[in-house]
Amino acid sequence: MIKAVMVMDTQGQASPGQILRLSAYGEAAGAYSQRLFRFVFLIEICLDQKRPFIIGLFRGFMFLCSRAENVSNFVQADSIFGPDSRLVHKHFATLYFVFVFDSSENELAMLDLLQVFVETLDKCFKNYASLTLCSITQMLQMLSHLFQSLFLVSVGSSTTTFKSELKPSRILNVNQS
Amino acid sequence: MGSQGGFYQSKEFLDLVKSIGECRSKAEEDRIVLNEIETLKRRISEPDIPKRKMKEYIIRLVYVEMLGHDASFGYIHAVKMTHDDNLLVKRTGYLAVTLFLNEDHDLIILIVNTIQKDLKSDNYLVVCAALNAVCRLINEETIPAVLPQVVELLGHSKEAVRKKAIMALHRFYQKSPSSVSHLVSNFRKRLCDNDPGVMGATLCPLFDLITIDVNSYKDLVSSFVSILKQVAERRLPKTYDYHQMPAPFVQIKLLKILALLGSGDKHASESMYTVVGDLFKKCDSSSNIGNAVLYECICCVSCIYPNPKLLEAANDVISRFLKSDSHNLKYMGIDALGRLIKTNPEITEQHQLAVIDCLEDSDDTLKRKTFELLYKMTKSSNVEVIVDRMIDYMISINDNHYKTEIASRCVELAEQFAPSNQWFIQTMNKVFEHAGDRVNIKVAHNLMRLIAEGFGEDDDTADSQLRSSAVESYLRILSEPKLPSVFLQVICWVLGEYGTADGKFSASYITEKLCDVAEAYSNDETVKAYAVTALMKVYAFEIVAGRNVDMLPECQSLIEELLVSHSTDLQQRAYELQAVIGLDAHAVECIMPSDASCEDIEVDKGLSFLNTYVQGSLAKGAQPYIPESERSGMLNISSSQNQDHHEASTHGLRFEAYELPKPVVHSRIPPTAVASSSELVPVPESLYSRESHQVTSVTSVSDAGSSELKLRLDGVQKKWGRPTYPSPTTTTASNTTTQNTANGVTQVDNLKTRDTYDSRKTPVEISSEKQKLAASLFGGTSKTEKRSSSGGHRISKPAYASKSSDDISSVKAAPVQPPPVQPPPDLLDFGESTATSSAPVVDPFKQLEGLLDPAQDNSAVNYGATAAAKGPDILSLYAETAAGMESSGIAYSTPTDRDDLLSALSSPSTRSVPGGTTVTQPVQFSKGPNPKDSLEKDAMVRQMGVNPSSQNPNLFKDLLG
Fold this sequence. Notes:
The structure holds two protein chains of two kinds.
Chain A: E1 2-9, H1 11-14, E2 20-26, H2 28-32, E3 41-45, H3 52-66, E4 74-76, H4 78-81, E5 86-92, E6 95-101, H5 107-124, H6 135-151, H7 162-165, H8 168-176
Antiparallel strand pairs in A: 1-2, 1-6, 2-3, 4-5, 5-6
Chain B: H1 2-5, H2 11-21, H3 26-44, H4 51-66, H5 75-81, H6 87-100, H7 108-119, H8 124-137, H9 143-153, H10 159-175, H11 184-191, H12 196-212, H13 221-232, E1 241-242, E2 245-246, H14 248-262, H15 266-282, H16 288-303, H17 308-323, H18 327-340, H19 352-359, H20 364-376, H21 383-396, H22 400-417, H23 421-435, H24 441-453, H25 460-477, H26 485-498, H27 507-520, H28 525-544, H29 553-563, H30 568-581, H31 585-591, H32 611-619, H33 632-649, H34 662-668, H35 690-702, H36 733-736, H37 743-756, H38 766-778, H39 783-796, H40 805-816, H41 818-821, H42 823-829, H43 834-857, H44 865-887, H45 898-906, H46 931-944, H47 953-960
Antiparallel strand pairs in B: 1-2
């Protein structure tokens, strides 16, 4: 099952001690804070916050930054997110997209899911990598739907029929109806 | 997007988002957000806010919360919004509520009613919104409130609603399986839904259910198979295609389910063969998702009842993965190999070079995966190479987490498959040396036990050879600058027990080394304690042997120093040492019998052998023994002592912050029972909890044969001068000459020299090295398997037949040549120094380098048809050599590996698994820490006129400390 989805800004790479913006979703967050991580959130992290999952995120981020080019997109993340966790990461423009999941998932499929996720975001919000203000709430709405349809939000395992669900216009239409 | 931007947002909000986005520091942002919170608090409580405005406030609240601030003041407004009639407002309300609240929040109860109402709504969008909220917000207690409606919605006319209802039911099942156990049949029903989306959603809960109980769902095999078939035949609407693959995620889920259902069930598996075989053919291996499905097929094939055709297809896919340039695919290929290896052990042979490429890849993830594969395919024939590789890798990485893991794997493999005890010790040495702080202390105890017990047979010479080689290797290792504490403990123990056993090293030499250890690691009390006890043993053996004990000056100064140590434990050991030296040979032999560390493992917990004595004493009016637990007064004292000890132990600078030496201390260090004259309170230092008391006190009396009885005599006190001069440092030179003795020694030397002088082992050309590695990893598999598999090759793999004969000859030449060349020099040389013995082994490979190169280039194509034809010859050659070797009494498993040769030659083929069992540690427990008891006994015994030299050392150990 999918434990977390994270979107990290590569800005942290330039100044890792400073603020790191990332969004996270998932069950792993539960251990840290029921409230904050329950859904898609853009959160900020300071290094002095000693909350374990945050540290995990941060270490995960540092790890990704240190990862060489031209290697596989998979990482055994036991030391970062606890036993039986792997992650798939992909780098788009100024963002890292990371899916954390356990051994019951198919890594290649996760990579594709990530791809779908990003493609869909891209369709819905042109240039969303440099998020413009107007799209934030829309993005939230849409992400909630995305997660709902992609990961069965509550269930946390990848499902099946995302293609029909993912027609962005459909999602947005629903939102605005 | 710009046009949509303003559709429900005010300028105010846009400014807020913008200013947050432009913040340069966390403080600045906090200020803005706090400001915003103030504004919202004020505005949101105003009466008669228009819905539109309210909706925006709620979204701003979400934004505030998102930035990590508390927006709880607005939660109730979000809850209120869910009541609204306007769909958009209602949905915003639901979104905010699902974000703000968790399922245990107090406000949930207010929402349940709304949800119930909305689930009955005519508008399916309202129903969907409510179902979303159900998934997020309903907890175990509120499930019954919505359950009937959710079940009803399973029959809703809109497929989106049906799907969400399935998800909600799945959610309920996850939260509380019992609450929906009677509804499980609904999942089966929905599997036949007209809408593929609903069917796909049903697979998730079914997968969970099948994972738990496979047998109740066997009847669904045919349904799943037919669904998979339809999906693969593109019967689904085009909208379900993704990158030209029809509903790949449905396929993957179905394959997972089939793997579960077909596992170990021949009948069920047979019905799957066709469809899985079709998938292998149909999947487009050029796209990522196609490969994902292929990989899932392999996983399925590896789980279900094996079918040769499918295995063949899986094999093809794997070789395609491994040959790919993409690291992702290589990774999947390695992973798939690891899965197939269970059913088809010989499969790795075809991919050996690819595997070795992965092993040497710069990608860490791939490397680790490959090590995982190696771990899975370890057998007694290739364990040496694999563990060697693992250790090399372990040395090279910094990641402590993984280092620990790989160290424990090395230990596990070594314990399971060790070809010889000799090799086991070597391996353990390496592991300790490089990851000593990360291995379980039990491993150290296992190692000590192995050295003490030897082969467990009557072969005394082999045992002593083993020990002396261990001693030699340890003496050499001691010259390394920084060693882990655990390893030093092992070294000290072995040197103490066996340092002088074979007479090769003088007592003064050993003691000098031990003193150096105590000196160099003066901050580690555990190591010091081990060293002092080892010193005592060495001296005791000397006394027993009738030699004069000449204490080295540095040793004397060490003892002198320890006599006033802050640690009472070290103090006691020092005093014990003094006491033992002062005794005559006979007494010493009783307390410190040579090589008796194994004898005392059996503990007579009932202490039956003391019964007569106890009864005799009782008859004479002695007080009965009162267990420690019943004496509360004593406990207080011991706990205060405990603190003292703790203080003392923290005086020194500790380098291993997280390593608590307690367990060792516990087993090894006897708590002081009788105080030295300088101690104020003549109370034992009971370091540990009550249970350990029980253990120690029991053992104390029972270890009759112990070589480590700690005698403490009050009267004996010697004075030496303070240490004013530094002890000489250990020199490496002294170690290098001791090489040509027993078989065992050779390997020790080889290993050590390699470690110490890297230059000696010049790396051979990579290609030949790889070949060699491949051969040693994969070549050692059982010969019969090989032949059949390579035979099968020829028939079923025409794809590989296009190979030039050059390659073939080189492939052939490579393995054929070495066997005749290699063994003889080794056989001849193995008694001599490393340099000579390794040289001839390397040479044949150098000769072969040229030949091997072409084979190297297209590594994966190596196994052409002709090669396969020749394969058996080569392999039979291997087999013969191996057989020949074995018949000559040597475990000669992997002929092409140099290290293997040496280690294999070095010991007769004993396959005893050394450390697999967790037997009691070879460590001696000593004496009970029961002060009162001891004193009573002491008094009693003195009355009886018994003196310390009498026949009952146990008694005195207990009495005197």
